[in-house]
Write a sequence for this structure.
């Protein structure tokens, strides 16, 4: 039987989407991504996760969502789980995920993640899951005005992280000792890509959804409900209430207006005196650090900034290879 009750059920390119956003449902206070992808999406990343047997009335995609809510998926946070029946949406498109193992690279920070639930048997059930994944990927690419060259594998981002060079498809399928993913789709990646392309050419990414009253919420981030300054039916009133460091979000968690935090110049030389250095912008613990560093990009995220130990490293990608860590802005 079904365990979760979706907040909304829509149909996207023939795939039923059950929306159950972790930004709204987090009773166990699991760690969540906090970086906005609004206006930054460059593609769709495809993953495979293993098929699981579930009771009648529920589906594997629902159960993977439930496992995430219960903190049984470790640090994996994806936008969609899709199986042979439907998809469950876990994150709004405006929020980055944790799925590409590339830290603050483009995989995590700028692509929508789909976990396609399959097995090595590659039976009719697996093929239906894959077909739903292809339909969903095509619809998302079309929604953001992207073509088939913006379809990525998990392995692509691992190869980019490791400094390898090649075409998009070479990096999509090139061997990486850390992980070959999507494991069950990669052996026929060209065929899967052609299927996505066929769905891109046919039909539209039309979303049919029930009408709901639009409220514009003013928060620091969609996940930080406690920071909310108010909820307004008028977008103009929400903009007026918005302060530096806050954004206006619609019902789906998409950023529609923001007042950015002040930034500093990339490459600025700074001196730290026993300041805490964090692994990422939302880390709760870190290590003490002193010395001379440089602002990696000058951007402020969650009150913190990225630093590097050499002026020559500023702005270089992949960021994971050059960023030393995050420090609180007030410590700079």
């Amino acid at each position: 039987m079904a365990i979760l009750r979706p907040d909304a059920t829509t149909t996207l390119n023939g795939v039923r989407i059950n929306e159950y956003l972790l930004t709204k449902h987090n009773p166990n206070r699991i760690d969540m991504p906090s970086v906005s992808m609004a206006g930054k999406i460059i593609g769709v990343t495809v993953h495979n996760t293993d098929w699981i047997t579930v009771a009648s009335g529920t589906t594997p995609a629902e159960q993977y969502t439930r496992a995430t809510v219960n903190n049984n998926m470790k640090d994996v946070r994806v936008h969609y789980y899709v199986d042979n029946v439907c998809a469950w949406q876990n994150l709004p498109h405006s929020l980055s995920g944790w799925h590409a193992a590339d830290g603050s690279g483009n995989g995590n920070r700028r692509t929508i993640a789909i976990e396609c639930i399959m097995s090595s048997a590659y039976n009719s059930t697996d093929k239906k899951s894959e077909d739903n994944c292809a339909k969903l990927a095509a619809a998302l690419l079309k929604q953001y005005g992207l073509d088939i060259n913006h379809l990525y594998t998990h392995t692509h981002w691992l190869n980019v992280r490791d400094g390898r060079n090649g075409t998009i498809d070479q990096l999509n399928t090139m061997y990486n000792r850390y992980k070959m993913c999507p494991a069950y789709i990669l052996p026929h990646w060209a065929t899967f890509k052609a299927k996505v392309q066929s769905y891109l050419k046919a039909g539209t990414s039309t979303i049919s959804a029930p009408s709901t009253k639009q409220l514009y919420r003013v928060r620091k981030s969609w996940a930080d409900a406690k920071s909310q300054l108010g909820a307004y039916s008028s977008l103009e009133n929400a903009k007026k209430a918005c302060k530096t460091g806050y954004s206006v979000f619609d019902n789906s968690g998409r950023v529609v207006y923001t007042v950015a935090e002040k930034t500093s110049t990339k490459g600025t030389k700074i001196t730290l005196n026993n300041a805490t250095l964090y692994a990422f912008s939302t880390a709760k613990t870190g290590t003490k650090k002193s010395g001379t560093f440089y602002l990696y990009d000058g951007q402020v995220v969650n009150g913190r900034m990225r630093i590097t130990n050499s002026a020559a490293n500023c702005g270089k990608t992949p960021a994971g290879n050059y960023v030393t860590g995050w420090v609180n802005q007030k410590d700079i």
Observations:
- The longest strand covers residues 269-278.
- The radius of gyration is 20 Å.
- The chain has seven helices and 16 strands.
